[in-house]
Amino acid sequence: MTQEEKDKLYSDAERLLSVYNEFSPVKDGNNFDKEATKNCILKMNQAAIENQDECKAFSAWMEESAFFTSPASTRFHGNFEGGLALHSLTVTRQALLVTKPFMENYFLSPAAKKFTEKYTVSASDIYISAIAHDFCKADVYKTEWHNTKDIFGNWKKTPVYKTKTDTRTLGHGNESVLRVLEIMPSLIKKRPVLEAISRHMGFSDLSETESYNYTNFLDNPLVMLIQFADQSAAQWYDC
Q1: What is the pTM (predicted TM-score) of this model?
Q2: Which is nearest to 171 in space by CA: 136, 135, 203, 213?
Q3: How many CA atoms within 13 Å lie on the side-chain side of 135?
Q4: Type and span of the H or E element at 26
């Protein structure tokens, strides 16, 4: 990547962060508003995706699927209504926050030369990799209601999320790749983005055969950036 391309990457990442900061749904620590989450993501879609037709398709899919209402998991991070959208947005923020120091360090490494001879990295690439990494989770959970007691000993109905029994998957990351390609076919030319989405869970989502060449994917900085962003969102912010 040229210095001009690097400077554009950093300035665009800052621009997207400014959109997040303006419309952030997270207030007073962990409190958030579902509609504000949706609005923030739709605003960031417009700021990050240059092709207007694909931007509309991207946002429309989010609206028409259960992306904005699904939980992010059944019992771990983001296991509440709207958790998937909030988790995806938090991962996006984490990735954008460290873009410059992360990439500057990467560009100093021997691995960078081989990668940058073929590919460039844009803030849009980072955004799409982060916001779409868990598209596979939209509308795969069902809600069951369990009887539980509150602190006063009173019985109440508590929602519990379960994975639908008819769910079919090509694998966690690969299922998200399939969904994002159906929405934005031009991404077929963006191998680094597809790799970042596919491999965002590291070794934990690989078959034995896939694990043989897993280290090759780590030459792609987007893979490691999204892994960091995903883990830090879940572990540091419980989202």
Answers
A1: 0.86
A2: 136
A3: 28
A4: strand 26-27
Residue found by looking up tokens 């369990």 in the block:
146
Could you tell me which residues come within 8 angstroms of residue 72 by beta carbon, excluding any fewer than 6 positions away? 78, 79, 83, 84, 86, 87, 88, 134, 137, 239
Which tokens sit at 111? 């691995």
Exposed, middle or buried: residue 84 (CB in 10 Å: 0-12, 13-18, 19+)?
buried
Measured distance CA(14)–CA(11) in Å, rounded: 5
Per-residue model confidence (pLDDT) at position 81:
80
pLDDT category at 48 given cuts 50, 70, 90 is very high
Length of the chain (residues): 239
Tell me the per-residue pLDDT of 172-211, one tens digit each, with 9 for 90 and over. Answer: 788 999 999 999 999 999 999 999 999 876 655 555 555 5
Q: Which segments within 57-200 are labelled E, that is strand?
A: 141-149, 155-163
Q: Residue type at 216?
A: N
**Cα distance between residue 137 and residue 139, in whole Å:** 6
Cα separations in angstroms, 126 against 65, 84, 103, 159, 171? 22, 18, 11, 34, 21
For 123, other C-beta atoms within 10 Å of its C-beta total 22
β-bridge mates for residue 145, sequence order: 159
Q: State the CB neighbour count (10 A cutoff) for residue 113.
A: 9
Question: What pLDDT shows up at residue 5?
Answer: 95
Tell me how far apart the alpha carbons of residues 124 and 139 are, in angstroms, rounded to a whole number.
25
